[in-house]
Amino acid sequence: MITLYTAITDRLTRAEWFLPTLARLVFAGTLLMYFWVSGLTKLGDGFMGLFQPSVGAYAQIFPRMMEAVVYDTSQLSIWHWAVVVAGTWAEFILPALIVVGLFTRLSALGMIGFVVVQSLTDLIGHGGLEHAETFGAWFDRFPDSIIMDQRAFWIFLLLVLVIKGAGPLSLDRAISRQVLPRDI
Hints:
It comes from Roseobacter denitrificans (strain ATCC 33942 / OCh 114) (Erythrobacter sp. (strain OCh 114)). It contains nine helices and no strands. The protein is mainly alpha-helical and 184 residues long. The chain has one domain (18-177).
């Protein structure tokens, strides 16, 4: 029995391709559309909406600031515009790079930063700290809080990609085969 167990687990240990490939698949199946739909809510009208975010974009990213200026984006600085545009673009670009496996480690690291900022905005800007069920707690028998539970799984999934890379079915691998000599 121990020999069979060891044989099976040794094969799993040698299957280096499996974990990063599965992590990208799980990301695509669970988070890709979440971030893309969120990004779509931030776009303004028409093609120029890529550079002129909606009022809702500012309200999502700078909720307290928007309340202070009575939702008049003309009162905000160029810095606010740049943050909103960069955040909106990041919701499209970083998930797409992860799914196709291009610059995967860097993209996953960027997504971790994005999720941390998103979580802090939800907690501080949108008042999530005032609601214990939103913030949650670990080891409390309730696995459904938005921040401590859900976002911990997101970050763990992204850390797998930061550490392991994209795996063999990726543009990262295809490019590295073209650039690096095969003798290495």
